[in-house]
Amino acid sequence: MALPNDAAAKFQEYAHPEMLVSTEWLAARLDDPGLVVAESDEDVLLYETGHIPGAVKLDWHTELNDPDTRDYIDGARFARLMSEKGISRDTTLVLYGDRNNWWAAYALWVATLFGHPDVRLLDGGRAKWIAEDRPLSTEEPERPHTDYPVVERDDSAVRAFRREVEEHLGQPMIDVRSPGEYSGELLHMPDYPQEGALRGGHIPGAKNVPWARAAAEDGTFRGRKELEGIYAGEAGLAPEDDIVVYCRIGERSSHTWFVLQHLLGFPHVRNYDGSWTEWGNSVRVPIKRGTTP
Amino acid sequence: MTTGTLNPRLAEIVEDFTSLPGKERLQLLLEFSDDLAALPERYAGHRDLLEQVPECQSPLFLAVEVDDGDAVHLFFDAPPEAPTTRGFAGILQAGLDGLDADEVLATPDEFTGQLGLTELVSPLRLGGMSAMLSRIKRQVRAKRG
């Protein structure tokens, strides 16, 4: 049974208010049997230092990625993962994490590939929960295993592959990396040299809107008007556009995908998870250097 | 350079990790994170005196000293929100601090792969510890003159 939506006034402005919950809403429902909270962080040990009581851990790298092929896990493996975490197909899954929910948004996007019916983000993530002095626990919850069904992953709606991006050239595209990565000055994200590429620059036509602009200082999402100012105003996106977003491996752009699809309600947004680590290493794809699209 | 064998302290740390089942290895890594010594006064607030290790996913800064007796002293600075990076630093501090420069330089580069953390932490993240080790060795070589 899905839990009720968070009726917080801020969320009602968004196109899909049901996709967010506030810390107050969550704190009042931690014991609800229909709810599973999952923490997804960049730092693989952060969960162990203390997490929202009852929350399970979901790691993007060791659990959501296929260990061999550069791809996400398949339906059977996702079903096993969810079952082990105590998540059922009808569970209300609330995700949160560090760094403005960067990795939590990525986990939410992966859950979308499997069509999990009710998955939401905790607005403000781990930082807001802690800033409000809410309880943390180091106890790992023992949730009874469930029998999550095997659902085939459907990449068609929200995922773009390189070939599709090549066909998409000339249509709206957002590069969410830092300005230095976008211009080609940097071959990798600041502080992440191991995820570099042979060529610097961006996909021709892509506009640069760094992902974290969608977050306010406290890690919550900016209000709808501000988001519209950034994405519709500055970047010139329109709701009917067919939009591709990318970064270096598809995680920062999951955050922007969430904003465009769920907060602004643009129906055709795909995340190109191959992103710059694929494009910038590919032979004979067009690349634009410099600060203009 | 991958010569040399593990010094007894690092060998014991490897043994401690590999004798534990998977999840408990993460707990042990967290203990190393918690036990990482704070920067001494002469370095605290002086990031310009420290070398950044950008290969780590979260910011880490380190300083290496080689004293008159050729012993190596290691200092690290990483925020509490980066326990994995702190844990890697803690392992290197516990395993190398106070050893002779030759012993530090003899540490096999591939030792980070022997801790049994590759599957649990991911090779990408472990790359941060290899980078710390190679930067420590480079500084030791430079500083002993």
Quick synopsis:
The complex is a heterodimer of chains A (293) and B (145). Chain A has 293 residues and is α/β, with parallel strands linked by helices. Chain A has helices at residues 9-12, 23-27, 60-64, 75-85, 102-113, 125-131, 162-168, 179-183, 224-234, 252-263, 275-279, and strands at residues 20-21, 35-39, 56-57, 92-96, 119-122, 173-175, 207-208, 243-246, 269-271.
Architecture overview:
The complex is a heterodimer of chains A (293) and B (145). Chain A has 293 residues and is of the alpha/beta class. Chain A has helices spanning 9-12, 23-27, 60-64, 75-85, 102-113, 125-131, 162-168, 179-183, 224-234, 252-263, 275-279, and strands at residues 20-21, 35-39, 56-57, 92-96, 119-122, 173-175, 207-208, 243-246, 269-271. In chain A, strands 1-5-4-2-3 form a 5-stranded parallel β-sheet. Chain A is globular. Chain A starts with 8 loop residues before the first helix and ends in a 14-residue tail after the last helix. The model of chain A has no long low-confidence stretch (mean pLDDT 95). In chain B, helix 3 (83-96) packs across helix 6. The model of chain B has no long low-confidence stretch (mean pLDDT 91). In chain B, a hairpin with a 5-residue loop joins strand 2 (61-66) and strand 3. Chain B has helices spanning 8-18, 22-35, 83-96, 101-105, 118-121, 123-143, and strands spanning 51-52, 61-66, 72-77. Chain B contains 6 helices and 3 strands, in the order ααβββαααα. Chain B has a 3-stranded antiparallel β-sheet with strand order 1-2-3. The interface between A and B is medium-sized, with 16 and 25 residues.
